Here is the input.
Amino acid sequence: MASSESLWSTLSAPLIRQNPVTLQILGICSALAVTTSLDTALTMAASLTVVVVVAAGVISLIRRHIPSAIRLIIQIIIIASIVIVIDQVLKAWFFELSQRLSVFVSLIATNCIVLGRTESFARSNPPLRSMVDALGSGLGYGLVLVLVGACRELFGMGKLLGMQVLPLAESGGWFTPLGLMLLAPSAFFLLGGLIWALRSIWPEQAEAPEFPPYSRGPTDTGEAR
Amino acid sequence: MKRGIWDRETVALLLLAAILPLAVTWLLATGMSGAFRLLFVLVAAGAWHLVFMVARAQPPSFAGAITALAIAVLAPTDIGPFAMLLGISFGVIAGELAFGGWGRNVVNPATVAIAFLGFGFAAAPWPVLPVQLGWSVAAVAAIGTAVGVMSVRVIAGAIALLLLGWWQGLLTIPAFTAAAVVLVLLVCDPVTAAATGLGRWLYGLLYGALVLMFAAGWHGAAPVQAAISAALLVTLAAPLLDEIALRIWLARSKRVG
Here is the structure.
């Protein structure tokens, strides 16, 4: 059962402990751009998860045949092909949603998480393991997206998935929407606060301070340096 | 007295003393409603200072009172208490306490809080400052520069451009008042202002220039809104201005030998 346990840890590690967004600060461009509402965040998370899982599987299958010198080109071609398929699927069945996601689904091709997982993991691991690892990363990314997206939609419009949750003040309720939540800076604030909270709970995630604060030693006379 | 009297709290208390004329003028003009508003902001900001003292052993600072006064005077009115609390918390935490308290912050917490409330609740009306507040700025600037907690260069640079704009008819009286109040309450904060001689001149001039630019080109902006936006932008530019001043100084000292 050792292998199934480690498969489980491969899947669960990127959810919080090794989260690609909050720990490695990867893929935040799209994480900030598509989170004004929950449905776009969910679609984006699902698209990225599918792309990274399929790409990891395909690249892992042909990993012994990829010449190392042109491996990035091959990976990008595979990833881009899958992204195009996803983009076309969204346009065919969820046209309105794909319009709101605009260019960001196509930009999954350049997402650091996708290329990072295929380059660092799928290239040297068997297909099942690679796909589980990719699924974990996709879910970890999706978790952050859904959290930020839910916050922004709830406090920016008082809605969740398009349904009015908090009664608006202008229609007789008590909630005044916070317009700032729909602007890009709020995503930075929320993401920063989330990272701060995570690193307070799990201090091992925090980086060593670049400039350690000046502390007064016992021999210090307190003079300015 | 081993460490001398010029520690952080001395500066904070002197700043507080310097802005007292403005605080008294504002309280006289607004009466009880102003006093309640100030008390509310003081309690909210003070609570966060206490939380950070307990959680991270950061000593609270009297500068929190200056922040509270600035927010009470300049923040948009007609905002519910919960939203107000949110804005104050955001400004005080993300603008100051998260960086390690007053003295380590990059931007002025009051500027952040007011900008947050202004952009977040775009429909809320901005306060109209009573005109006597503009006159109290003269007293504040005089005390602040005399005791050395406000920079003469910043004030001189900014006021020179503001007066020029007023003389040219670009600035109305409310706009001038708002710009002057924001100048002493937020822009002159010694922590977030530029710190080099030339940098301070540039900093003050840039603030004045931004206010004039907004007055000329930003239609529909309230006077306080334009001044706050200028203060926010100029705070972000302060490190750059210091860097320019240092580069010039280094280049010159190298040439001299």
Remarks:
- The longest helix of chain B spans residues 8-56.
